[in-house]
Amino acid sequence: MKKLDYILIALLIGISFTPYIFLRTSTGLSKNVYAEVLIDNEVVKKINISDPRNFNKPFEMETDHGHNTLLVTTDGISVSHADCPDQVCVRSKPIKKENRVIACLPNKMLIKIIDEEDSTTDNDSEHNHDDDDEIDFISE
């Protein structure tokens, strides 16, 4: 192989990564992603699932219909425990893309991923995060 062949191969490899770079920046992977938790079709909590402070932190959802524990990881948000009989929500994979949902029908709970522009959160920067039971909206 000649020197020009090596340059051509390196150039082609470089060009092959161009779509990855453009798709990564255009899909908004760096923006905040929120999960809305609805119980009885009413939003009770919004969780910023792209905030590392929320990773591996359980969020307890206690209602008249039952109890669910939500867990945020780098894979998204999932239901780690539920007291419903069918456990469909617990067996669901974590979600992190917009318009995805996890439903716990016996406990009347729905988790859906929403776009950052659709999310309006309170500014809780002055709030102490030690008492998570009183936090309704979690954001940066």
Summarize the structure.
By secondary structure, this protein is of the alpha+beta class.
Index terms:
single chain, 140 residues, alpha+beta, mini-chromosome maintenance (MCM) complex, domain 2, 5-stranded mixed β-sheet, 3 helices, disordered C terminus
What would you note in describing this structure?
By secondary structure, the protein is of the alpha+beta class. The protein folds into 2 domains: 1-30; 34-138, N-utilization substance G protein NusG, insert domain (mini-chromosome maintenance (MCM) complex, domain 2, Sandwich), CATH 2.60.320.10. It has 3 helices and 8 strands; from the N terminus they run H-H-E-E-E-E-E-H-E-E-E. The protein has helices spanning 3-16, 18-26, 88-91, and strands spanning 34-39, 42-48, 58-62, 67-73, 76-82, 101-104, 109-114, 137-138. It has a 5-stranded mixed beta sheet, with no helix packed on it. A 3-stranded antiparallel beta sheet has the order 3-4-5. Strand 4 (67-73) and strand 5 form a beta hairpin. Mean pLDDT is 80; it is low at 119-140.
| Biggest sheet: strand arrangement | 6-7-1-2-8
Percent of residues in β-strands: 25-35%
Q: Averaged pLDDT, please?
A: 80
The description of the largest β-sheet is: 5 strands, mixed
**How many angstroms separate the termini?**
54 Å
List the helices and strands and how they pair.
Elements: H1 3-16, H2 18-26, E1 34-39, E2 42-48, E3 58-62, E4 67-73, E5 76-82, H3 88-91, E6 101-104, E7 109-114, E8 137-138
Parallel strand pairs: 2-8
Antiparallel strand pairs: 1-2, 1-7, 3-4, 4-5, 6-7
